[in-house]
């Protein structure tokens, strides 16, 4: 009879082992999927977080920032998607909206998050950087970071070619503004390379930035950079002059086709701009002509927008 209990124990052990063998793969798969898909964050919503830290905002921000960096690296090493970055960033903004490290690295954390950033992430990174320049409008580092992201990194995530060009122009303008605020003057050369060929308006704006940078670098220790900026200014001014001449000639050709297409250009230029004499008589017509309107009496007045 003593053998019966032993046999029963063996059967129970065998059945238990079989049950574990049958259920373990399914349970392991479920656990694996939960780890892959879901990140559980202990951070409360921003409004509640401000109350929960009991005034220790700076310490809480440092802890949140450190945890964000650790989680970002961990997800990269485990090849797992990390979608909780905005939650961390919003928590930091709720406690300390002027926290500089966040704005220095927010583009990398979002656009190059594990496993791969998207166009939506790039747009979100731009929004956070714009929050940064709003919170720290006199900080040249934030402006330069914002400009470099728009000019170099952000456009690679965009599908629309015109929008990519618009981001690059905005980035070049931001880099130029960073130089005005005290960033390294070599940023002006970066902006120059980005805005070259972007049109008269962009050329005029860039020329102003370079003129400021040229003045800032008038120091023996920055002689080489000073000369580089000077050469670029000469190129831009020559380009602006050529573009102005080309635009003026296109306007003259268009007016000639509409007004006197049967005469030569030289004779048309000699005649001057055609005006409606009765309609342009008096003080109103004189003022309109001085502003380059339809009552202009000379080519200089008529084409002043091209100068």
Report on this model:
- It is built from 14 helices and no strands.
- It has 307 residues and is mainly α.
- It has a domain at 45-183: Serine Threonine Protein Phosphatase 5, Tetratricopeptide repeat (Alpha Horseshoe).
- Helix 6 packs antiparallel against helix 7 (140-153), helix 8 packs parallel to helix 10 (200-216) and helix 9 runs parallel beside helix 11 (223-259).
- The mean pLDDT is 76.
Detail the topology: elements first, then pairings.
Layout: H1 3-37, H2 46-52, H3 57-77, H4 85-95, H5 100-111, H6 119-135, H7 140-153, H8 161-181, H9 186-195, H10 200-216, H11 223-259, H12 265-271, H13 282-290, H14 299-302
Helix pairs in contact: 2-4, 3-4, 4-5, 5-6, 5-7, 6-7, 7-8, 8-9, 8-10, 9-10, 9-11, 10-11
Please describe the structure with a list of short key phrases separated by commas or semicolons:
single chain, 307 residues, mainly alpha, Serine Threonine Protein Phosphatase 5, Tetratricopeptide repeat
The gist of it:
The protein is mostly helical.
Query: N- to C-terminal separation?
Result: 115 Å
The name CATH uses for the topology of the domain at 45-183 is Serine Threonine Protein Phosphatase 5, Tetratricopeptide repeat
Helix content: over 70%
Mean pLDDT: 76
